[in-house]
Design brief:
The protein is an alpha/beta fold and 241 residues long. The protein has 2 domains: 42 residues, no CATH class; 191 residues, Uracil-DNA glycosylase-like domain (Uracil-DNA Glycosylase, subunit E, 3-Layer(aba) Sandwich), CATH 3.40.470. It is 42% helix and 11% strand. A 6-stranded mixed beta sheet has the order 1-3-2-4-6-5, with helices on both faces. Helix 5 packs across helix 10. It is globular, with a radius of gyration of 20 Å. It starts with a helix and ends with a helix. Bound molecules: uracil. The site of uracil has 13 residues, from helix 5.
Length: 241
């Protein structure tokens, strides 16, 4: 098979939703050396979503999930909380210790900050919404050990559920909190400082990227705090004006 045929074959499998393909028999070094390196772009969008999906169906399908190693140390799966018909969805990275214990997203220190940010910004801007009016979830639903960043395969596996949550809610806008959420939603190689404060798109839904509340909790981040408040103002006015 020549490189063009090989590429076409790989693209065919990628479009079917396959993310990785492996050889059963290892290549000899000499064979490996002559094989071209073919890089396929990671698909930004998984292609297959069930029709008539709902948050309840997704939750049932997640079940007592054992699809990746994050199941080994979690106490509770943290699916999401808030208004399932919300016009706005916030996406974080993954549960921390408090969330793992309570089964709810953003209930620890970062969560308290997020609540204040939403409630206070909306109140100051004269917008009639509170945290309980929006929907909040994470890229991965199980706590990564020591709160480490989720690994690419964990994000891929759990990402399918995040995408289904978003498609089932169909919000007017999404807020990606931090770079893990940004990476999960946007096929972008930019850093968070460049991407924040601007509109992007996931499928046809506008996405505002901003800093993760945990980052804002660090004391030296006064400038980042000001920027995050500006991002939130833009987002809330877009969704609720
Ligand atoms: N950080 C997150 O990204 N998500 C949570 O739910 C809590 C902290």
């Amino acid at each position: 098979m020549n490189p063009d045929q090989l590429r076409a074959r790989l693209e065919f499998y990628r479009d079917l939703g396959f993310e990785s393909i492996y050889r059963r028999t290892p290549l000899h070094a000499a064979q490996a050396a002559v094989l071209p390196v073919i890089e396929l772009e990671r698909p930004a969008l998984p292609k297959l979503e069930p029709e008539d999906d709902s948050l309840d169906k997704i939750l049932i399908e997640i079940g007592d999930c054992r699809r990746c190693r994050l199941c080994e140390q979690r106490s509770t799966i943290v699916f999401g909380s808030g208004n399932p018909r919300s016009a706005l969805v916030f996406v974080g990275e993954g549960p921390g210790a408090d969330e793992d214990e309570q089964g709810l997203p953003f209930v620890g220190r970062a969560g308290q900050l997020l609540t204040q940010m939403i409630d206070n910004t909306a109140a100051r801007e004269g917008l009639p919404i509170r945290r309980s009016d929006v929907y909040i979830c994470n890229v991965v639903k199980c706590r990564p050990p020591e709160n480490r960043t989720p690994l690419p395969d964990e994000m891929d596996i759990c990402g399918q559920f995040l995408y289904r949550q978003l498609l089932s809610i169909r919000p007017k806008a999404i807020c990606a909190l931090g770079s893990t959420a940004m990476k999960a939603l946007l096929n972008s190689k930019e850093g968070i400082t460049k991407s924040r404060g601007r509109w992007h798109k996931w499928r046809d839904i506008p996405v505002m990227v901003t800093y993760h509340p945990s980052y804002l909790l660090r004391q030296y981040n006064q400038q980042a705090k000001r920027e995050a408040w500006e991002d939130l103002k833009t987002l809330l006015h877009y969704v609720y004006d």
